[in-house]
Amino acid sequence: MIKITNMNDDYLLKIVQLEVLNQQDKNVKINLEHLLKEDLGLSSMNLVFLITEITNKLDLSILDFSDDELLNLKSVSDLVILLSAKMKIKN
Amino acid sequence: MKINDIIQKLGNSNGKLITFKKSKRIELHFKDLFPIIKRASLWLNKNSLNSTTTLGILANNGFEWVVADLACIWGGVKIFPIQKGEDINLYLSTSLKFSAVLIGSDYMDSQEEIEKFGIQCILLNELIPEEDNIFKHAGLNIMPGDENLQPYNYNDKEIFSYKSTSGSTGFPKVIGQSVESTENSIRNGQDLFQHKDDDSILVYLPLNLLHQRYWLYSAIIYQFTVIIVPSRYVFEAIKQEKPTVIMGVPHIYEVIRVEFIKSLGLNIGNDLYDNNYSEVFKGYLGGKIRCLWTGSAPIAVDVIEFYFKLGVPMYQGYGMTETCIIAKNFPGNNKIGSVGKPWPNLEIIFDDENQILVKSKFPVSENYAMCSEEDKQTFRDDGYVATGDIGYMDKDGFLFIKGRKKEMIVLSNSKKIYPSEIETKLRCNKEIIHCILYGNEHPYLVALIIPATGITEETIKIIINEHNNISKQENQIYRFLIKHADLSDAISNQNKILRSKVYKKYATEFEKLYD
Fold first, then answer.
1. Cβ-nearest to A67 among B60, B236, B262
2. CB count, 10 Å around CB of A6?
3. A7-90 maps to which CATH number?
4. Which one of B28, B34, B140, B325 has the fewest CB atoms closer than 10 angstroms to its CB?
5. Are strands B225-228 and B341-342 parallel, antiparallel or unpaired?
């Protein structure tokens, strides 16, 4: 079981959960272990849309992410960790 | 319009480029770009990179690509776009010779790998002023003597740029596109769509694709704005840059449609068309949108209808690497469901199997620079290009595509998949008896799996995840369906899966995997 290690990540997870739920258009409980493609069915373009929405809420830019970073995202946990890292750089 | 006009008009063009260098937004008139291009072309010239040279390029959409491209056009240098992770060794074994590879700042970690093949790498930083000095350099005077560096004078038949695509066997195909073919595409694109100085065209698909670079050249010559962004920035660019035209592929339009409807708190089935949502939708697309281009893969008719009904015309087209644009819908000449009328200066006929055959007055090429034996049949002795697509033309002269001659799966993001290759690999696992991929016109692959007796879903999931971890994105299987079923009625006497029978039998269940 992957656990949130600080409040900031908890906050990020809530934002990710909310946005993924918007994308899913169905009532599912999103957890850190969920795989973005296999479990949630997000295509690369869906993922770009999702991250664009999240970065807008966090006052980040999707241009702060490299293509490689986006390609390497496998799970909700990966996404939260990456967002957390970008937030730390920004702050 | 001539290719030679691109550089000739650059110094006077009021057209505008909006793009990025890393995350820094750059907006400048082409006439202000001119000294930067001249400086970069001088650099190439002083390093003996000229019209006899082919340069690979590995870069993301952005300022570096634009400068490299225009500097190469200035010098007559032929560009060969390459992708990260591509097996460059394949190209070295042919007559294609890279003098060097231009590397963008996002790909500097690839330098060592490329140099292992004995190829020189040129970092695009060397051609382009430092980020902070771009505008300072824009006003820089060219050194005495450098004024003599004249742009290269292209002739109609010579190669303008190379382009590559995956071949039907998975072995890459490389083609050198002629100058006259490029000119025919750009000239007719402008004639049919009449882009004006208040137009701004959004390009987010890779500049590796020559037909995406047409919009850069058009913007210089016909003096409008081109917005060139990395694909990950496309949704933000629509909102921030407010384009009038978007060059896209079906999948992005599907995503936009779904997300717009969700943003209204509605469902796909809701009737939007009688509720004055047109202005809201145009606002969702930035507020200035005039029309959309779609191509590279089939698009569902109901998606196109959605856009038209909300007042945003979407024009579907059709083309291939070997022919450039074959057909296109355009304002005043549009039929939803068709790929449009034949492109000017191009003849379309059909063979006995209704395969579309194309002959152009200005052919892309007469052969491949590199391909498999099988692919050589594409260029026929009678001058026609065999497209591999089955279609027909209606009484009004609109072309309709019915399907692929072979079984290739084309995802809605235009990625082409060869299913048997993946299926065969997965069947190498003893846990899997049969695997049938599905995904034509959908954003990703799904699969029907017939497992061996006693094998659980968890085990199959592990195998699929292992496959996904080592596969390119388009070859990954996002969802799958397990059936402990007998497929004997869908297996030929040579033990081959009869794909169409499987698709027909499980059509509903395959489609549910995209819910």
1. B60
2. 9
3. 1.10.1200.10
4. B140
5. unpaired
Comparing CB atoms, the residue among A38, A45, A62 nearest residue B251 is A45
What structural domains and CATH numbers belong to chain B?
4-154 (3.40.50.12780), 244-404 (3.40.50.12780), 413-512 (3.30.300.30)
DSSP assignment of B199-261? -EEEE-S-TTSHHHHHHHHHHHHHT-EEEE--GGGHHHHHHHH--SEEEE-HHHHHHHHHHHH
Nearest CB to B236 within list A44, A62, A67? A62
pLDDT in tens, chain B (515 residues): 899 999 999 999 999 999 998 889 999 999 999 988 988 888 888 889 999 999 999 999 999 999 999 999 999 999 999 887 777 777 776 677 788 999 998 898 888 988 888 889 999 887 776 654 444 444 445 565 666 789 999 999 999 999 987 655 557 788 999 999 999 999 999 999 999 999 999 999 999 999 999 999 999 999 999 999 999 999 999 999 999 999 999 889 988 998 998 888 887 666 777 668 999 999 999 999 999 999 987 788 888 999 999 999 999 999 999 999 999 999 999 999 999 999 999 999 999 988 999 999 999 988 888 777 767 788 999 999 999 888 999 999 999 987 677 778 889 988 878 787 788 778 877 678 789 999 998 999 999 998 876 688 999 999 999 999 988 889 999 999 998 777 767 765 445 577 888 998 999 999 999 98
Say whether residue B266 is in contact with chain A using an 8 A CB cutoff.
no
Residue B390: its H or E element = strand B385-393
- Domain residue spans in chain A? 7-90
Q: Please tell me the distance in Å from A52's CA to the nearest CA on chain B.
A: 7
Q: Which residue of B has its CA nearest to A68?
A: B106
B400 touches chain A (CB under 8 A): no
